[in-house]
Amino acid sequence: MNLNEYDLSQWQVATVVSNERITPRGDAEVRHIVLEVSGEQLDYVEGQSIAVIVRGPHDFGNPNHLRLYSIASPRNGEKGHLGAFSLCVRRCFYIDDVSGERYPGVASNYLCDLEPGDPVQIAGPYGSRFLVPTDENANLLMIGVGTGIAPFRAFIQHIYEERGGWKGAVRLFYGARTGLDLLYMNDVNKDFSLYYSEKTFRAFEAVSQRPAVDAEADMERVFAGNQHEIWELVKDPRTYVYLAGLTNVAVQFEKAMVQAAGSEAAWQAKRAELIDQGRYSELLYE
After folding, report:
1. Fold of 3-125
2. For the segment 147-193, what is each residue's pLDDT rounded down to a tens digit?
3. pTM to 2 decimal places
4. How far apart (Å, rounded) are the C-alpha atoms in residues 240 and 195?
5. What is d(CA 249, CA 143) in angstroms, rounded to the nearest whole number?
6. For the chain, which end, N or C, has fewer CB atoms within 10 Å of the first or last residue's CB respectively?
């Protein structure tokens, strides 16, 4: 990531409040980390990201390492505490293409190893496109896999707790390799279940058909099973579409939409219309 793309002059220090694993032991390690900024409120809205700065030196002479993470809390703070916000972080590793050696991801391992009371340098927030619309009659079509679910946790808590409800349709399609990996809806953390009784909210879960070989969530199957409702929402001028997580989720969604639209050209025309009207946003990573 290019540090020059971001203004880090206004960095500040946050303190770790808690660092809890939200996937069962033995599965991919994902942690819900709550940070707090003391003395001043961190002004952000749902869908924005925070930069975590890991001071070096690092490999290749880099003095700092920067990683952006979506904020997983609504604007009034984690559990209503102003100045406190959460990040959803997966402990990552990568394989060197030449040596074949396995190396820990710098920022993710740094964050996952933090303990309550530890300081963290942050900057931001950043991002101004992946935001909740102001009109409560708008429909929200949210699609996320893995830690891409983080901004949608913030969305849902904001509209149902801070705003007190939502009149438009709220549809969440989210997936993971296994049911235990479904973040905020597994045996460790069930945050999303708190909203299943809301009249306007429905959630659709997708897991891999081949979890033993680390296959990705089968979002294609859940899209196909709900293709008609998704397409009707996409055609509705009140609908906002959000995709977050691994880039492949956008590929799978597009495949389903091409079929629903009847042709590649028809879908691309609709997608262009959504983008032009500010109703289509992606927050994707490799």
Report:
1. Elongation Factor Tu (Ef-tu); domain 3 (2.40.30)
2. 999 999 999 999 999 999 999 999 999 876 655 556 887 777 778 88
3. 0.89
4. 20
5. 8
6. C
